[in-house]
Amino acid sequence: MGKTHEHIAGRLRTFIEEQPLFFTATAPLDGDGTVNLSPKGVRGSLVVVDGTTVAYLDFAGSNAETIAHLRENGRITLMWCAFQGPPDIVRVHGRGEPVFRDDPRFPGLLALFDQVDHTSHGLRAIIVVTAELIRDTCGFAVPFLAYEQDRPLHADRFAREDDESLSAYFEKKPDIATSVDGLPGLPLPLPPMPAPSGG
C-alpha cells in the first residue's frame, strides 16, 4: 500500500542515503518527444539537502537528456529500490534545476558532496530537485541483488581530462549541446571548475 510523505526524514532519508543506485526520469513537453530514464551510481553523489530537497552530481556522459528536459520544463522523478532488506520503492516527484559550473551557487552546493572526488568523473552540473510528491510503495517484485562496489571505469576515464579537453569531448558528441529531440542541453564551452566554497 503506497504512503505519501510530507518530508524526506527519518527512515525515508536513511533509506535514500544508503542506496548505491537510483534512477531519474524526465521527458520533454512534446508528446512525441523521447522519455529519458537514467541509472545513477557513485557513492556519495546524492545528498538530501533538507526535507524537500535533494541534489546529485551530474557527471560526464554521451548525452544530456536530463539537463535538456529540466531546462525546458523542470519535471523529474527520482526512484530508489531496495535490493536488500525489507522491500521498498521510494519516488520523489518534483521540479529539477541544473546548476552549472558558472552559477554562483555551484561552489556552495559542491561543498555538500564531501564523499566524492570532485576532480574525477567530469563533473558537468549539480541537479537540485525540489520535491512536490514523496511516496513509498512496496517492492515485492524487486529481486534481491548484492552490491559489490562502484565500477572504477568512469572515474578512471574522466580523471584524465582537464576542463579544456572535457569541453572538447562534449562538443564532439551530437547529443550533449542539444538533446536527441533538439532541445538545448549542456551549455558549451564548459566553464572551468570553480574554486571550492570558502577556498
Distance between the ends:
48 Å
Helix/strand/pairing class, anyone? alpha+beta
Q: Can you tell me the number of structural domains?
A: 1
Note the beta-strand portion.
25-35%
The H-level CATH homologous superfamily, spelled out, is: Electron Transport, Fmn-binding Protein, Chain A
Characterize the main sheet: 8 strands, antiparallel
Segments where pLDDT lies below 50 for 5+ residues?
A: none
- Highest CATH level, the class: Mainly Beta
**Average predicted local confidence, pLDDT:** 94
Order of SSEs: EHEEEEHEEHEHH
What spatial form do the alpha-carbon principal axes imply?
Answer: globular
Give me the oligomer status.
Answer: single chain
Helicity range of the residues?
10-25%
The number of helices is: 5
Architecture per CATH nomenclature, i.e. the level-2 architecture: Roll
> What is the CATH topology?
Pnp Oxidase, Chain A
Number of strands: 8
Radius of gyration (CA) equals 17 Å
